[in-house]
């Protein structure tokens, strides 16, 4: 099955018209027509857009045509993993919020203890600093203009309009002088 045929099959799977499918994956409608007719081949970006919109599709099937189309069509096989006794990880259930509240006698107290995180010998702990952002009001100037910029502004004010020319689509023009 060719890539163009697989894309046609994806359009059928999506239960959308080709134009709705193009809108769904954010491509031009004409590109869908050109690809499904075999005129053009889809780009990598086009295939990535399909895959990102339909994550249940398998890459192997989409690119090469091998295997199943959807992840749900794969046979579910569980491979039991056995670990030797010394490698088994002992797990204890994590406490939930309510267990922690009942076990914590100082819960809700005004005094809070700050614990410094444990660091390795090569690391040092730097506490987070609260930085208050500086507020800038609308009337506050951001920069003082330099003399060069002021000179340019004053020089531009001295310029006066000499002529205004309007060009029309039919080739005619008008010239205005103040």
TrEMBL record:
Transmembrane segments: none annotated. Pfam families: HTH_3 (PF01381). InterPro entries: Cro/C1-type_HTH, Lambda_DNA-bd_dom_sf. GO terms for molecular function: DNA binding. PROSITE patterns: HTH_CROC1. Residues 109-130 are annotated as: Disordered. Coiled coil: none annotated. Residues 7-62 form the HTH cro/C1-type domain. This is Helix-turn-helix transcriptional regulator. It comes from Chryseobacterium sediminis. The lineage of its organism: Bacteria, Pseudomonadati, Bacteroidota, Flavobacteriia, Flavobacteriales.
């Amino acid at each position: 099955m060719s890539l163009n045929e697989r894309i046609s099959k994806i359009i059928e799977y999506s239960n959308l018209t080709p134009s709705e499918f193009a809108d769904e994956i954010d491509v031009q409608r004409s590109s869908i027509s050109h690809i499904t007719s075999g005129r053009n081949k889809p780009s990598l970006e086009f295939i990535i857009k399909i895959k990102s919109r339909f994550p249940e599709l398998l890459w192997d099937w989409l690119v090469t045509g091998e295997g199943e189309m959807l992840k749900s069509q794969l046979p579910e096989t569980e491979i039991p993993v056995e670990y030797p006794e010394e490698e088994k990880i002992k797990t204890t259930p994590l406490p939930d919020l309510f267990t922690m509240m009942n076990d914590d006698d100082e819960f809700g107290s005004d005094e809070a203890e700050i614990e410094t995180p444990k660091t390795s010998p090569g690391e040092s702990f730097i506490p987070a600093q609260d930085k208050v952002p500086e507020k800038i009001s609308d009337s506050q100037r951001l920069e003082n203009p330099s003399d060069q910029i002021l000179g340019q502004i004053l020089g531009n004010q001295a310029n006066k309009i000499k002529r205004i020319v309007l060009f029309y689509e039919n080739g005619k023009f008008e010239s205005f002088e103040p």
